[in-house]
């Protein structure tokens, strides 16, 4: 009887817990940037790509944006895409970007329509470093710096 009760409890816990699909090792990412251009992560093969989830209200996100921009500008084999994980109006994000310009494209993903191949961020900023082979090389939760990126890439 004790075994049956334990089994029943485990089954109930399994049903109550949300089930998440594992993020693919080689994720795809096709979005339209805020300037209306298509972005396809697959076209970046052969380069390192920083996929940075951020929001206009996230102070650490805003602080790291110039570092990411500088890193991309000084490393020819590295590109980036900023994912505004934000329900703010696109026009407001564009106005925000006019004050916080970066050298990489920005796309918006709303919380009700997350990217299918990337885990939903548990906190912001969240960054994925995609290797030249298209596979996730490193996942960062929290702010990143040029030093962290250099260490992860090996430069």
Automatic annotation (TrEMBL):
Q: Alphabetically, which GO biological process terms does the record hold?
A: cytochrome complex assembly
**Quick one: signal sequence residues?**
1-21
Which CDD domains did the record assign? TlpA_like_family
SUPFAM superfamilies with a match to the protein in the record: Thioredoxin-like (SSF52833)
Q: What is its main location?
A: other
Segments forming domain Thioredoxin: 20-155
Subcellular location as annotated: Cell envelope
- What one GO molecular function would you report for this record? oxidoreductase activity
Pfam entry (one): AhpC-TSA
Supply the alphabetized keyword list: Cytochrome c-type biogenesis, Disulfide bond, Redox-active center, Signal
What InterPro entries does the record tag this protein with? AhpC/TSA (IPR000866), Thioredoxin-like_sf (IPR036249), Thioredoxin_domain (IPR013766), Thioredoxin_ResA/DsbE_sf (IPR050553)
| A single Gene Ontology CC term | cell envelope
- Can you say what this protein is called? TlpA family protein disulfide reductase
Q: Which organism is it from?
A: Dyella dinghuensis
Write the lineage as a comma-separated list: Bacteria, Pseudomonadati, Pseudomonadota, Gammaproteobacteria, Lysobacterales
